[in-house]
Amino acid sequence: MNIDRARCTITAKILENSEFKKYKDSADVHRNYGILWPEKVLEIDTSWDVDVPIIEEIELAAYLNVERVWIRYEGANKTGSMKDYPVRAAVSDGEKNNTLNYSVVSSGNHAAALAHFTKEVNRKCVVFVPATTSKLPILSSFENVQIVAVKDAIFEDVYRLAQKVELPNTYNANVSNDFLMTRFSSASKQIIDTLGHDFPTHVIAGVGNGTYLAGLIFGFDYFGRNGIKAVPVGMRGAFPTEEAFIKELSYWEYEDFLYGEDDISSAEGSIACASYSMPQLIYAMRKSKGFPLGGIVNQDISDAYDFLYEKTQSFALGYIPEPTGIMSLAAVIKHRHIFEREDKLLLSFTGAGYKDLDGIKKFGGRHKTHILEKINQRPLDLVLQGVSDSRRILFVEKNTEPEFISELLAK
Fold first, then answer.
1. Three-state SS at 30
2. pTM for the whole thing?
3. Distance (Å, rounded) from C-alpha 153 to C-alpha 211?
4. What is the phi/psi pair of residue 237, to 5°?
5. What would the pLDDT profile of 51-98 be if each residue is shown by its tens digit?
6. Statement: 54-81+180-377 belongs to CATH 3.40.50.10310
7. Cα–Cα distance between 179 and 85 in angstroms, integer?
8. Fewer CB under 10 Å: which end of the chain, C or N?
9. CATH architecture assignment, domain 100-168+383-410
10. How far apart are the C-alpha atoms of 198 and 193, rounded to whole Å?
11. What percentage of the chain's residues is helix, strand, coil (to nearest 5)?
């Protein structure tokens, strides 16, 4: 493997697992699954970081019967999600290596962040998405973006197609680029600096690929804050990480969703049949003695919005997440019986509500009208760059030949 380019070392734990051989090709360490656990952080650049708020929620702690609860609102980042951390690093790294273009497979937030930061350096960005993503209007408003929207496809279909498309002199900004996981260390440092010695026992977040949580645990360890449990949250029947954890494996994949998609569709950025950073997340859970919280359905998301509106300071301050972002709250409400009285929980709201207003209209619970009004009271950190332009969207079938897509993108 090209260890120098990956800037990582393989842990002995992962090396024992032969099932990764087919996912990590020695000729291209970036285009396949992220299995490497970094040995160290080369540098932590916090100069781009914004002040992400952490709000103590006393009433929520009382309801859960735990010692303390905080909510971290990653929606305060420049492009409205925690994806800013790895994407800024990807663009910085790419510019140092004279990259002309950037690419990513994303259902929304990662792509929006890459579109924004590549625009700042006047670079082209190629984004592969499922055609059903709610973020198409935002993405197609960026003049520097070319979107490949795969019809009748889930995320894994898109990823398998994208990794076969040849894009010359293009930086892979996917989190299968193992180096990018370490960039969440700046968020770890911010949490440490904000909370000081009164530190959480658990950090809880909804996951898509899981790199955010894995990166936080990596950062906590790097700064000497061991013992914080990683608790990823997933939707029912669309959370293969949970299955892998139960089976004591580092990777698991579904043939199809195990539960009706109509009942788990609220968190489009989370539902998955596979996860290309699952080995890193599984390792982070085992290393931190964490565990997964699954079984979330659309009604749980709606219940979480009801609780957010009725009983939190975060809502009063306008810190309202999108449906995927509120999964952490949905999980602790649903699974509150598993926590102990002395536990201290840090919930991450991973993305801003203004990025998925349609999702909140559908799944925002009894108070969705008031929630939407509250969102509209706040200035948007990420706005449309212009008029959405469908000409920037290339719709393809999932069985389209990769060579054909490469030719179209080259024009």
1. coil
2. 0.87
3. 22
4. 70, 5
5. 899 999 999 999 999 999 999 999 999 889 999 999 998 898 899 888
6. no
7. 12
8. C
9. 3-Layer(aba) Sandwich (3.40)
10. 11
11. 40, 15, 40
